[in-house]
Amino acid sequence: MPESAAFSRRGHVGGAARTTLAGALGAGDATIAVASLSTWAGATSNGPARAVLDRGLASEEKIEFTAIAGNSLTGVTRGIDGTTAATHTTGAYVEHVLTARDLNEANQAVNAVLGGVGGITTANLANASVTAAKLAAAIPLGTLGYAQVVADGAPITTETDLPGLSVTVTVAAGRRILISGVGRWTGTQGQNQIAVRIKEGATQLQQSDSIIGTAGDAISWSVGVSITPTAGVHTYKLAMIRTVGSGTASTTATATAPSYLLVEDIGAA
Questions:
Q1: How many domains does the chain have?
Q2: pTM over 0.85, yes/no
Q3: Tell me: the pLDDT tens digits for 213-222?
Q4: Mind listing the pLDDT tens digit for each residue in 78-103?
Q5: Which of 47, 74, 99, 230 is the most buried (most CB within 10 A)?
Q6: How many whole angstroms from its chain centre is CA 244?
Q7: Which structural domain, as residue segments, surrounds residue 195?
């Protein structure tokens, strides 16, 4: 019988063992009794399943069935996938199979999405408002600017821009960026507290606070902020201030543990 052009969900199960007909089968029979279907459980859970009788013989016939009742296939449609309903003898092999329709529909679905040339095309997307420009805009552009220092900084008490930790970047319109800074600091007095700030000019964008337990300890700090700036050139920097305590604070850095400032484009705003 001819197959429908419409896609439909069909059932499949792995490990379905080959079985045999329990009795002779006429060309018009719609229920097929077999020796055992113990490994076919769930074959029709997601829709009709397929089987082949007498594979490789002149009487080869493919069928579709909608349910399993004991050791019988029920709701059978005979002679599918280019075969013809035929008679079969007791003991004929019955095997769970994929059909040409199963494979052709999978191929057709992939081809429809990929446009037949191995690439996604906006014409094949369900949302017609999606454009190539929008797809491109959604892709992160990565690093816009990076600066690092590998030596200790001078002691500070009041807010001080951290030398070497400033970057100037060009941001495109409608983009979201991530600004992050990482480093370590130490202080001359226990219980001193510092704040590390991300700034653009005099404008503070984010602040991270940390406290030292014992004088001379080295404490890690990190600070980050995600923003959508105006299009154009922007300069971002890190500044540090001792906010609690009476001693001095300073950054510590080495070639293997630098202090750094990173600005990244992470996608469309």
A1: 2
A2: no
A3: 899 889 999 9
A4: 999 999 999 999 999 999 999 888 88
A5: 99
A6: 45
A7: 142-268
